[in-house]
Design brief:
single chain
């Protein structure tokens, strides 16, 4: 049975991004929580960078690609709101902001890459 690379990549992404989702809902974030999120953010950045590298090799599935685009849009909005709650004057917060901004850039790139593939397949027929 062949490995579903898209499902595997999405599962990994969701696993590493989930702890960030939990922090998004907290009203206040203390310094120790921020420091504990830095490795999670680094791992998330690594995964989303890897996703961009393999997106062209994934088996096309329009429904799943569109769902993933929607997930990336939602995650972008949540992360953007989360960053606004951090204090850029604190070193750990600044580090998390910097990593998070890179994640935001990669989320946009992944959305665009997936969108282009969907459009290319739509006009192929």
């Amino acid at each position: 049975m062949a490995v579903d690379a898209l499902k595997t990549q999405v599962d990994i992404y969701n696993t590493v991004f989930r702890p960030l989702h939990e922090e998004f809902s907290k009203e206040k974030i203390d310094d120790s929580e921020v420091e504990s999120l830095i490795p999670v953010a680094k791992q998330t950045l690594f995964i989303i960078e890897g996703f961009s590298d393999i997106v062209d090799d994934l088996k096309f599935d329009e429904k799943r690609f569109r769902e993933l685009i929607d997930t990336f849009i939602e995650d972008y909005e949540l992360l953007q709101a989360f960053i606004k709650r951090l204090d850029p004057l604190k070193a750990s917060h600044r580090q998390l902001i910097d990593i998070s901004e890179k994640i935001l850039d990669k989320l946009v790139k992944a959305q665009n890459d997936l969108g282009l593939i969907v459009v290319k397949h739509a006009y192929r027929d």
